Amino acid sequence: MDDVIAATGMSSSAVYRYFRSKDELIAAAADEALILVRDLFGKLLQQRPVPSPGEVITAMTDAVRSRASHPDYDLTRIAIQTWGEALRNPALEERTRSFYLSVHGQLVELSRRWRAEGRVSPEADDREIATVLVSLMPGLLVGPHLVAGVPADELIGGLSSLGTALGDG
What are the sequence ranges of the domains in the chain? Predict the structure, then answer.
């Protein structure tokens, strides 16, 4: 908290007026990062016609790139740190789990609309598609810090090739 107080230039009483503890500060930062992700999918669901799977993946990669390049703070780092803190803080773990289940629900709805519009097979399982997309999110966030950014076209091409290969048995 001393580092936060020093970085803000505020008095300790002013900072503690908003955050009584490090855990409250972490929860607030986590909420900000997670809400941006949920809002991304909410906006995509509002579009008519619904964006294609490729457009959704492109929106995901663009959002990560934009969050990582913020001049004041990198929200991708905050999301990664949130996962680590969630391992030691049961309340944050539940909050994070609830968030990801909500996002998974949004992705199920996107998939349902894709099926209705003929963008994916009528036999496709919406929950499976949502699970694949929500599982991509950690890799998109961690990738730029460990290896390199993940270009949308490479991700789309790789998923397409993998889908073809998996369909062959």
Answer: 22-167
Specify whether the CB–CB gap between 36 and 63 falls below 8 A: yes
pTM score: 0.81
CA distance 44 to 128: 19
Residue-level pLDDT at 18: 75
Burial class (CB in 10 A: 0-12, 13-18, 19+), 65: middle
Listed as ranges, residues in the chain with pLDDT below 50 are none
Q: What percent of the chain has pLDDT over 70?
A: 92
Mark out the alpha helices in the chain (DSSP H runs): 2-8, 12-18, 22-46, 53-68, 75-86, 90-116, 126-146, 152-167
Q: Which residues have a Cβ under 8 Å from the Cβ of 19 and sit 6 or more positions away? A: 1, 4, 25, 28
Superfamily covering domain 22-167: Tetracycline Repressor, domain 2 (1.10.357.10)
> 45 Cβ partners below 8 Å, 6+ apart?
106, 109, 110, 113
CA distance 106 to 108: 5
pLDDT at 3: 67
